[in-house]
Structure formats: C-alpha cells, structure tokens
Amino acid sequence: MITIKDVAERANVSPSTASRALRQIGYISKETHDSVFKAASELGYIANSTAQQLKTRNFRTVGFIISDSNNEYYFSILSDIQKMLTENGMNLIIAFSSENPVDEETCFRSLIASRVSTIFFTPTNDQNGEIISVAKKNGIKVVQLFRDIYSDLDTIINDDESGCRQAAETLLSLGCKRLLLIDVEYLYLESERVRPDRSTGFLQALKGSGAEYDILRFPLVDYDVGVLTQRIDAFRPDGIITATNIAGLEVLTHLKDREHAGIRFITFDDNRWLQFCTLSAIRQNTAILTDSIREAVCTQSEAPRKVLIPQDLVLRRDALLD
Amino acid sequence: MITIKDVAERANVSPSTASRALRQIGYISKETHDSVFKAASELGYIANSTAQQLKTRNFRTVGFIISDSNNEYYFSILSDIQKMLTENGMNLIIAFSSENPVDEETCFRSLIASRVSTIFFTPTNDQNGEIISVAKKNGIKVVQLFRDIYSDLDTIINDDESGCRQAAETLLSLGCKRLLLIDVEYLYLESERVRPDRSTGFLQALKGSGAEYDILRFPLVDYDVGVLTQRIDAFRPDGIITATNIAGLEVLTHLKDREHAGIRFITFDDNRWLQFCTLSAIRQNTAILTDSIREAVCTQSEAPRKVLIPQDLVLRRDALLD
DNA sequence: TTGAAAGCGCTAACAG
DNA sequence: CTGTTAGCGCTTTCAA
Q: What DSSP element (H or E) covers A179?
C-alpha cells in the first residue's frame, strides 16, 4: 500500500504539504506542486478514500437495496443511477433484500457499517423502523423507493395507480368486457398498507363500465404458477394486466401453450423484448427517477419529500391478437 | 454518529474493552459483556467498518466493473455474486466502464481509492496496464472476466469458442447451408487479441462442411443497425448465430419485419424471454462462475489462475421456423 | 480481566 | 508557503 507519507518522503515535503498539493488546496509553490505530483505519479499513489472519509466525515457512497433481484426493472435503472452518482463524485454499493425483512435488516446493517451517506431501499415490510432509526442516528439519510410504507421517510414512487387506471381504461375502450389484473402479493405486508396500489387505479377505471373483473394478488418470488393459470382458466378474461414482467411472462407462456386467442395484454415495466414481441407495456420514466435520486442524495431537506413519477402506456400491436 | 466511545462511556468501560466485548475476542467477564451489549443496543451502535478496515488493513469489499450496462447477462449474475459475497462477509461496489478505456481507468481509480480487496473487470482494451499495476502496488488483486487480454492476470472466461462451435455444428446438422455469425466488434481492441473468440469455434465447425458462411463483427454499443440488416439481406443466410442478446434482438426484429422464414437462429446468453419465444440459446454456467469468483476473492495464489467455464446449448423449437 | 497508549492514512488548525 | 500537531473511529499491543 502506498501512502501519502511515501509521496511526501519522495518529494521531500511533509505529508500535509503533499496532501494540500495533491488536492490543489491552499497556497503551494509551483515547485512543490510539481515535485509532489511527480512523486505521486511515479509511486502510483491514489489517496485512500476510506481514510479521507474518516477524517473529513464526508461520506461519498450511496447504498442501494434491491428487493427483487429477478426484477430486471431494477437493473434497467441501475446504470443511469450509477452514472449520475459518478458525475457527482459518489460511489454506489448495492445489496439485495430478497423481499424479506431479515435480509433487509442485514443490508441496512452492512450499509450503516460502511457509513454510506444515503440508503435507498424498497421496503419489504413495515416492521424495520428500528434499524431505519439506527441509520438516522448514524447520520444516514433513508429514502424508500417504489413503495410508500413508512410515512416519515423521503419517498420516490412511480405512479402505478394511474398507470394501471390508464391500462384498464385502454383495454375497456378496445372492447374488453372481462378484465383480470395480476397484482403483487407482498409476503410481509398487507396490500392495503402499500401505496401506490395498482388495484385502486384498476377499480377506478372499471367503476360504472359494466365490465366484469377479477384481481389476483401474486407473489414476486417463490410463487406457484398453477394458481395463476387456474385463475385465468376459471375467469376467462379477454384482457389481462400484469404488475411485473415475471408474472407477465408466466401469463404469456400459459396463453401460448393453450393456444388462447383474442386476449389483450398489458404489463408493467417495458423492455426491448416486449417491443420485439409487439406487446403493450407501461413504461417507467427513468430520467425523472434518476433526477429525483440525485436530488435526494445531494440536498438535505427537513420535511420528508414525496415524489410521484408519472408513467406512459406504450400501445403495440398485441402479438396475441394476430 | 455513534462511536465505540459512546458505548464505552455508557457501559463504564474503556473503548478497548468495549471493542473486545463486542467482537467477542479475548477475556471479558460476563458482566462487562452484558453491559457493553446493552449499551450498544440501546444506542443503536454499529461499528464503522471504514475505521475498522483502516486499522486492521483488512478490506472486505469487492469491486466489479461492468463493461456494458445494456447487457443483461451482467445483471443475471450479479445477485448470485452479491449473495455469495455476503455469505463471505464481503460487500460489493459496482462501476461501469461503458466499453471505453477512459471510463475503465476512472473506475479503477475509484475502486483503488476505496481500497477494495479485489477488482473484477471485463477489459475494454489492452492499454490500461498502468492503472492495473497501480492497483497491484496498492495490494489489490485484479481479475479479468470474460475476455483474456492481459496475460499476467487471473482470468475467468466462458468457453464461447466451444459454445459457438457447438452452435454452428448444430445448425449444420439441422441442414443449414449458409451460416452467418454476428460476432462482437471491439472499439479499442483488435479482434485477434481477444480470447475466447467465437469466430474461431465457428470456423472450426464449418471446416470441411462445404457450407457457405459469413462473419460480421458488430459493435456492442452505438451501433448502426443498417450494417447488420444489409449484411443479412446480402448474404441471405439460412442460419444465424449472434454473440449477444442485443444483436440477437436486432436480427429477430429485422427478420420479423421482412417476413423472412426458415432461418434458424441461436444466440448467446439465454434468458426467460428467449425461453418464452422458444428460441435457442447458449446458456452460461452461473454456478461455476460464482464459484470461481468466490475462489478468486478468498484465495491468494501466486501464478495467474485461468478458469475456462463450459456452457450449454439449449435447443428450442425455433419460433421462426413455425 | 481491563485500560492506556499508539497508530492505521489522512486532513485541518495553527505556527512559523 | 510549509511543517507540526492532533484526531477522525477503531483495534492492538503491553502493562497493570
């Protein structure tokens, strides 16, 4: 390991002078500046940011807890977020809560130990207030993403409720009479506690439409696909909305196998494969999301800030109707 | 911020005693142990791992540089890697090189500054030996993933050469007479410098088969899709192999648009959408990969270790042949 | 069994 | 303009 002491010795200055020279701070003579930079480059010196942070109490790392590693939506936003953080001189540490409170707490502990400046997480339950307050006691900002569970936290969510309402209205306007929504079932959370709620938007669209409808709440992980397929076969919908890509794929696979036809389909979370299959989807707004995250990282507000991000419905010629 | 001093004061012991008690190391009386733990839990104390690492010189973080954030393959392996690291008490920092040497160097600098124990990266070029040696000078192990560019580094690669040979042999055995391989064009690397090389396996399979063939090297990012489609239209293949999902999607989109038929298709990097579309793919072995990464992180070898991971061809009823 | 002291690598305050 | 000193939070001798 090469330290600033090594650089200082080689340049015949004190460590503090070397430090100031390298950071271009304060008054440094041209000669000192040059000799320090020369020494640093010859030695291959790179400042230990761990020690810097300890000293300056200025923690330039952000923690990101992904709740569902199978959900590609997370990864589609990750590189934008990382790029934005780099532009702001920050690092990104990621962790996975696997949709359960115990892992979520472990993630928190690990990120708190690393003294990240901010933790972004998608709450898997409403019982982890303890560790959240420990984070805050340690000067860490905590922001909940995509699920508004803890009312006292900064919150950034996609407007899934309105997205789902749009999707249902569109299906109705296309002539559907029997709509099925595959919403999310949370293992450690009452559905009623979770905002935004796709079912709410769904019901608003259906109110007074005269159409039949059904809602299945389906787990994000460790699910039994039979529950899904039986419900489809029993209800016989002519339009289906799925809350995630994964559920969407299960639905599509089932419909294809059974050679169903004429069932219209919209899923949350657009991607290139949906585009290729000319399937309709609800597209999240990554730009606004990244921007909100940047703001959350860079500003320190008092009152909890709530951000609601609008989303688009992308209609495509539905392959299943061909 | 809550420090061990706070805990020590509340428990009426010295910081060093508190430290030993919390880490269950050395001789500690039952009473001290209990009072220290009580104080820590009441205060919500979590040890600052930054300071711990500075002291113990034991860096429990791994850096991972993703070269292409559009390539979902990276994300499909990330959660397994992260889980494995967690089990071994380590953290994961990710960074993105965006397939260019400048960003790659920036990533290295940032990870070296964080004093990660190991850096995994997919080389985007062969000119960054300088920063790699700086990493090593700072006691950081460097492992190249998926591309064998620097001969003196630990290396973990998928056996794309054999995978491509298998794919080509299979297409030939299915009766194809005109094979097109869409291989990767590297912006900052001569193709000949990159191992494994899909084209090599492709050519081995074709040798003596009497079939016609063509190879197009296509960029991973910022590509012109017209180059791809024109080549397909000009060569009129009856079998296509693509090196990435992204190129694969472009090929499929083109073939669908033009209502081509009877063209067999195999792509690298299997996923659930390919499965749904009943498209054939070459499937990487994530278990072996994760295991190799664990070994690289946990053991310190002298000579550079080279790991070659075998992969499977998954044949599915090709939707385009229906 | 516990505490005092030193020091990991770095920077900020203060003298010079 | 530069060096000395102290200390971030933690652990590790070493002495008590």
A: strand A178-185
The nearest alpha carbon in chain A to B51 belongs to A54
User: In chain A, which residues have their Cβ closer than 8 Å to the Cβ of B70?
Assistant: 79
Using an 8 Å CB-CB cutoff, list chain A residues near B139.
1
Decide: CB of B54 under 7 A of nucleic strand C.
yes
The range of the structural domain enclosing residue B80 comes to 51-158+287-309
B208's torsion region: left (phi>0), alpha (psi -120 to 50) or beta? left
Instruction: Looking at the structure, tell me whether residues A82 and A153 fall in a common domain.
Output: yes
**B21 and B131 both lie in a single domain:** no
Please tell me the total count of domains within chain B: 3
B150 and B227 housed in the same domain: no
Does the CA dihedral A64-A57-B115-B89 come out positive or negative? negative
Q: What is the mean pLDDT of chain B?
A: 93
Contacts of A95 in chain B (CB under 8 A): 82, 86, 91-92
The Cα–Cα gap between A57 and B320 comes to 59
- Given an 8 Å threshold on Cβ–Cβ distance, is A44 in contact with B138? yes
Residue A301 has pLDDT above 80, yes or no: no
**A109/A89 same-domain check:** yes
pLDDT above 60 (res B322) = no
Are A86 and A134 in the same domain? yes
pLDDT at A319: 52
- Lowest mean pLDDT of A132-136, A279-283, A288-292, B253-257, name the range: B253-257
Please tell me whether any atom of strand C lies within 7 Å of the Cβ of B137.
no
Residues B59 and B105 in one domain: yes
Percent of chain B past pLDDT 90, that is, above it, reads 84
pTM exceeding the 0.85 threshold for the entire prediction = yes
- C-alpha neighbours within 13 Å on the C-beta side of residue A176: 28
Alpha carbon of A203: minimum distance to chain B alpha carbons (Å) = 30
Determine the pLDDT at residue B321: 60
